[in-house]
Design brief:
Strand content: under 5%
Largest sheet: 2 strands, antiparallel
Shape: globular
Strand order of the largest sheet: 1-2
Oligomer: single chain
């Protein structure tokens, strides 16, 4: 799944193994938005940084925090769409 861009993974410098962040899972499956982030940003620490950095434009929150806050489904979906748009814009 990592090699096919379906699961987020990163390798720490000097290590031979990959880490798979737990935040990408919803239940027993990888969240539907993860492959789109990987497609836009790449499957590496850059994607994790993109998701977790606190941003002034989000009033000090990260994209990840905004979609994990337990908000209603329609709000969460809107925030995921916003996050994916920003990722694609950065990649362009």
């Amino acid at each position: 799944a990592k090699d096919e861009g379906r699961m987020l993974a990163y390798q720490e410098p000097g290590k031979r193994f990959y880490l798979f962040p737990i935040f990408q899972f919803e239940g027993y499956a990888v969240a539907a938005w993860v492959p789109a982030i990987i497609d836009a940003i790449g499957n590496s620490f850059a994607a994790i940084h993109f998701l977790t950095v606190e941003r002034k434009s989000l009033k000090g929150e990260s994209f990840l925090k905004r979609i994990q806050d337990g908000v209603p489904t329609e709000v969460r979906e809107s925030r995921i769409a916003e996050m994916l748009k920003v990722a694609r814009d950065l990649a362009a």
